[in-house]
């Protein structure tokens, strides 16, 4: 395991899979692409990853309820090889919260789960895993 870690280097700075998948019941309209670009930049800066590896998928106008009501809300998952930590998570969460507020989504009406993929063999790209 130590040899594999040495070959891979520091996972927090290695290219990997920072990807955000977000669903909201709000119609983002023509501002959706700008929101996605802002999220991409935020994730790259917060996780210390090259933005060229960041992927963002947003589904707006979805059927989502919060607390049994049709309130403006969002649910998201952020995946990364390394770089998931309390400090980085707080940066991403604060930034996404601010971006979502532009669409009338209160910070109390969104969940963002952070997932460290862990083993590079669990993340695939271009027909192979990041483990090599």
Automatic annotation (TrEMBL):
Highest taxon of the lineage: Eukaryota
Q: Which reaction does it catalyse?
A: 3-phenylpyruvate = enol-phenylpyruvate; L-dopachrome = 5,6-dihydroxyindole-2-carboxylate
Question: Which InterPro entries did the record assign?
Answer: Macrophage_inhib_fac, Tautomerase/MIF_sf
In alphabetical order, the GO MF annotations are: cytokine activity; dopachrome isomerase activity; phenylpyruvate tautomerase activity
Q: What class of enzyme is it?
A: isomerase
Q: What EC number(s) does this enzyme carry?
A: 5.3.2.1, 5.3.3.12
Which locations, inside or outside the cell, does it occupy?
A: Secreted
Work out whether the entry's keyword set contains Hydrolase.
no
* Tagged with keyword DNA-binding: no
Cite the entry's keywords alphabetically. Answer: Cytokine, Isomerase, Secreted
| GO cellular component, as recorded | extracellular space
Enumerate the Pfam families for this protein.
MIF
Principal cellular location given in the protein's record: secreted
Q: Which family does it belong to?
A: Belongs to the MIF family.
Supply the name of the protein: L-dopachrome isomerase
Recall the taxonomic lineage recorded for the source organism: Eukaryota, Viridiplantae, Prasinodermophyta, Prasinodermophyceae, Prasinodermales
């Amino acid at each position: 395991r130590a040899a594999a870690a040495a070959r891979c280097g520091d996972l927090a700075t290695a290219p990997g899979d920072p990807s955000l998948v977000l669903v909201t019941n709000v119609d983002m309209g023509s501002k959706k692409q700008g929101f996605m670009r802002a999220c991409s930049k935020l994730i790259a800066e917060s996780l210390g990853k090259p933005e060229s590896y960041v992927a963002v998928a947003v589904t707006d106008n979805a059927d989502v309820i919060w607390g049994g009501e049709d309130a403006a809300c969002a649910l998201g998952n952020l995946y990364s090889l390394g770089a998931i930590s309390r400090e980085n998570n707080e940066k991403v969460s604060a930034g996404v919260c601010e971006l979502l507020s532009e669409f009338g989504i209160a910070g109390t009406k969104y969940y963002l789960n952070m997932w460290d993929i862990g083993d590079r063999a669990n993340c695939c790209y271009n027909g192979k895993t990041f483990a090599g």
